[in-house]
Fold this protein.
Amino acid sequence: MSRAFFAAVVLLGCSSVESLPSGPAGNNGSTGSGGACAPGHTVSCACSGTSVPGAQMCKADGSGYEPCSCATSAASSGAGGKSSSASSGGQGAAGGAGAEPPVIAQIAAGGTHTCARSEDGLVFCWGDNGYGQLGNGTTKSGGQPTKAQISNAAAVAPGGGTKGGSHSCALVAGGSVQCWGRNTYGELGDGTTTSTTLPVVVPGLAGVVAVGAGTWHSCALVKDGTMWCWGSNGQGALGDGSWKDKYTPTLVPGVLGVTAIAVVGATSCAVKKDGSLWCWGRVPNYYTPTPTAMAGFTEIKQAAPGDEHLCALKADGTVLCAGTNNWGQLGDPNAKSGTDAKLVPGLTSIAAIAAGDAHTCVVTMAGTVACWGSDGNGQIGLSPGNPVTSPTSIPGVAGVVELTAAGHHNCVRRKDGAVICWGANDGGCNGIGQDDGFAHTIVQF
């Protein structure tokens, strides 16, 4: 079985996406107001000297918002839309000789590529680029970050799943969405099936507060609490009750009051205001084209679907999991595979969660990381080996404010801004060239 599965967290992304329909205002570096928030919740904020709004993200511990991220004049001119030349973003390193490295505000992992967003709204991606999913105007893969041709980004979501995933999407400050890369099933949402190496606008979307990308489909959360999806629907991932692909955004019927979304592989999930968790497409042990309440998942704050398992963070800082446990992905060696939600023993004070193909990781309120499940590619943070059936602390990883997991690899962002990745380095997705990626290595921007 292929195990290049996506779990993006935004926060947290290459994938699930944590967001709320409203939030505080900020102003050029202010932290905003409003107190506690949901980790990864991205909101618009005012920027001095411009009418273009910025964006700010809730901290991993939910204690408040990070400073407002405002596009600078350099950001506005450095990476444009589809008409920009590839050379302006470049296929080289993220920063030129003598240039200041970008200050990273978000990371997100895809199946075989990874992306990061800087404080000034630029996007940098690395890894497999066979369909142009790095967004730099080429199809040349690379193991170092390169600049995508987009500016004013508020969040980025590289796609992925059991077959890799070859597109990316970004939420642009102001509430619109742009996507790029493979478009075989309409996953770019522009009404065509034409792939592109440069971002294109997804028409018909406004007021978007979160975006997610699976293997061949994409979804967006709008500030009114509705969810819209597009792309491949052969496994029911669009949630409209049919199995027909859609090339433009389609409303997920009956799913209202959504506060957070998670989009991975052929799975889509929505967390509602009442704390219930609804999923469709590939859910533990079956497929469904209709949104279905996940039994036993209550008071949910954030969802983290894997390939054959589903985990979620509860509001009280504990974790629930259900699905297959053949690789230890439920975090309890005594748990039997099944659809019943079970608490992961020993986990409390958890701030955020992310799942890969057959492994899961969490960030504690103290900024440490623990993982469990398949470790065949070192994704647990130890030397590659047998499955790890209980949460295990990752040595040498501390001060973490953001976590993302995908396929067989993970990345974290520390409070000092450093990005560290480990596990399988398929296509160079760990940002350390084409070398063995098992070790924890700082990505050089």
